[in-house]
Amino acid sequence: MSSSDDVVRCYGITKDPETNNFMMVMQYADCGNLRQHLNNNFILLNWEKKLSNLYLITSGLRNIHNNKLIHRDFHSGNILCYDMNDLTSLISDLGLCKPANVRGGDKTIYGVLPYVAPEVLRGGEYTQASDIYGFGIIAYEICTGLPPYHDIPHDEFLAAKICQGLRPKSDYKIPQLILDIIQQCWDADPLKRPKAKEFSFRYLWENCKNISVLDKQTKEADEVNKKSLFTTSSLSTGILSYITHAQAVYTSRLLDFRNLPEPKNADNNDNSFETEYSGN
Predict the structure, then answer these.
(1) Among residues 5, 6, 30, 73, which one is catalytic?
(2) Does 73 qualify as catalytic in the annotation?
């Protein structure tokens, strides 16, 4: 793959003299992964910085897809961040990356459940469209600061609900122009998701204050979010405060679910799904 400023650079391969394990020498990211950076700095991110980060991630994903590849394990833990003052992201962990024209073979599903597209959860092929689904979840995470489904178990029940149309939900308000793009990315129909080359985040970022509709929506969102308990409870420390369920897993693992329902979009994305977890 050609060099990209938005995909982590690999400088070579080395070998641990004690374990004899091979290791990749990669570009250093001083802010850790995206999830860690959001935990520590979300309150400092305005909408312009969020849009800048969304643009950088889509730029890296576009480079991967333009090279006819699929990432296959696209989540916030595999996005590395550097530059504390200006959130800059690099896509990493291309170990599962494969050519887009490779079909069949190993049907193993490996990943972080909240970011895996419903058609893949049912045993379908990884595609560039499934990467786009993962990006939609990441984009929502960047906008709200919260990990997807952080307060419920990541189990077969959640996998079934995702196939039935459940998507992350937060009281944190997102400007509608941005939310519309996110919702297109996590559409249950892969053919209705946008291509990486079609994203408009660079235009929105560079013209954040000049697009009257977006400027109005970001100001309205900020006013609503300033009054939310979620925001005010974090202002004193600048660090997000939330409780992660003991069975919420954000590291890649084997996912083996059977007889999941056919993917569809929900009529609405209310909290009725989450209430079924009460008592767990």
Answers:
(1) 73
(2) yes
